[in-house]
Amino acid sequence: xxxxxxxxxxxxxxxxxxxxxxxxxxxxxxxxxxxxxxxxxxxxxxxxxxxxxxxxxxxxxxxxxxxxxxxxxxxxxxxxxxxxxxxxxxxxxxxxxxxxxxxxxxxxxxxxxxxxxxxxxxxxxxxxxxxxxxxxxxxxxxxxxxxxxxxxxxxxxxxxxxxxxxxxxxxxxxxxxxxxxxxxxxxxxxxxxxxxxxxxxxxxxxxxxxxxxxxxxxxxxxxxxxxxxxxxxxxxxxxxxxxxxxxxxxxxxxxxxxxxxxxxxxxxxxxxxxxxxxxxxxxxxxxxxxxxxxxxxxxxxxxxxxxxxxxxxxxxxxxxxxxxxxxxxxxxxxxxxxxxxxxxxxxxx
Length: 349
Hints:
Strand content: 35-45%
Strand order of the largest sheet: 6-10-9-8-7
Helix content: under 10%
Distance between the termini: 13 Å
Oligomer: single chain
Largest sheet: 5 strands, antiparallel
Number of helices: 2
Shape: globular
Number of strands: 27
Order of helices and strands: HHEEEEEEEEEEEEEEEEEEEEEEEEEEE
């Protein structure tokens, strides 16, 4: 049994032990649609409707948070297919802070949940980072109410400026990730930079602002559409650099490097870090979810390589997440959330 087969075998056993394999299993295949009808819309319940779900984040046991772009909403979905809206809605596009029921968003792209239940949102159209603070309990207790505020950026003013958070400027931020220290890292795609929000201030962590694929320290490095980010358990920030069709890393010393892959990839739009060091990519160019081993071996987890809405097909997958032993996918142009069952080829499980 090869390295990849052993990994997949272990993950499937993990799914069995947690009771999630049945939910992740499609008849005769690796995928199951969890939520969404395949048509754009806005509806809570089961299966619910989405309009371009683009980012995912863990949100308690068997539940993920979803940034739903064209509905201008933050939502959650359970492994059983129940969809609920946390804040926002298609009739409430704009900018407004306050209660979750009253708040307004414009094209929320990135979403991340901190250890103490704070939800950060990278809001592309308003060029801001928003913060949802739970009113009741931690995430695992199922909070139903939040207060929405602006963590960083000037609403409606795109630009590039470090400094105090309420004066800093972003240009279409697309992804966010919380560090263990409580800082927030931001993929600032319009500025081709990785930014850090810490102690009420924003600074550039890496990127010169010039589009390219230059490795090096801090401002020496360059990115080309840094689309998504994921923090590994060792503190490494992994970056899906969509424009250069590469996977990049930013270490604790500020050094940017390019991961050498065993085969080329096409437009990585989403990235996730597994607990064992495996990376997962939502490869938009070929409509697949890929697994990348620590030594750069690339294998297909799900998707046929052709766009579609069939049982094994994806259509421009935008995000991938490893949570509770299965791989979750935001299937952008199919307006749905699916999970992939990881099965080792030719293995008797």
